[in-house]
Amino acid sequence: xxxxxRAAQGLPPRAVVRREDLPAAAAATLGAIRDTLAxxxxxxxxxxxxxxxxYLLTLAQLPTAKLPPVRLRGVGMPYTS
Length: 81
Fold this sequence. Notes:
It is a single chain. By secondary structure, this protein is mainly α. It has one domain (3-64). It contains two helices and no strands.
């Protein structure tokens, strides 16, 4: 059930946004961000199989991550690492 359907029935909106509720550009941007974070976690060595909660990357590690420049779709300025 979409948020406007929930509102018509007097229900509160969902706390989680589903991909099908987003415009295509927003979904693509969120996917690119998710993929970049996953790559950072893997390259930092913080992610280990069997340790699902040991994947946090600190802000201090971000400048040392070796990532190619990326351009997020739907965003005017390119983001480079």
